[in-house]
User: Fold this.
Amino acid sequence: MYLSKKAVGLLLLPFILSALVYYFSPNIINCTHSFFPVHEQHIDENLDKKMQKYLEIESKQNIYQKISEDALRREDNIKWVVDELLYVEKTKVTQKLTPLKKAIPQVEPEAHTYQLQAIFSDDKTALINDSFVKEGSKVNDATIKEVREDRVLIQTEKGSWWLFLFQ
Assistant:
C-alpha cells in the first residue's frame, strides 16, 4: 500500500502543529493578553480586594490575640493578688481579732457578667465574653444597642448600661 505525499502530509500535520504550538506557546499567550486586557485587569482587581480583606482580617486577629493574652495575664495577676496578698492580710487580721460567730449573709453572684474585650469601630463590631457581636445581636441575655469607639451600650431586662473598654 502506497501513500501519496498529500496523505503523508495530512498524517504528520497534527504532530507538526502541536510541536509549533508548544514551541511558540509563550508568544501565543502574550498575544492573547494583548487582545483581552480587560480579563487580566478584572482578575487583578478581585485579587487586590481579596488581599485587602485578608490583611484586614489578619490584623484584627492579631489585635484580638494580643487582647486575649493581656486579659489572661491580668486574670493571672488578679488571682495571684487574691490568693497571695489578700490571703496573707486576711490571716493576719483574723489572728489579731477574735472570730465572730454571727452569720454572714451570702450574696448571690450576678446571673451574667459582661466583659468588653475589644472594639472594632470601623464595622461596629465588639468582642464581649469571647464572642464577636454587632449592633442588634445578643450576648447571653443582653442585646447590643450601640457600639462606639470606646464603649458599648447593652440592654437586659434589668436595664441598660455602658460597657467600657478599659475599666
Summary: Residues 41-95 form one domain.
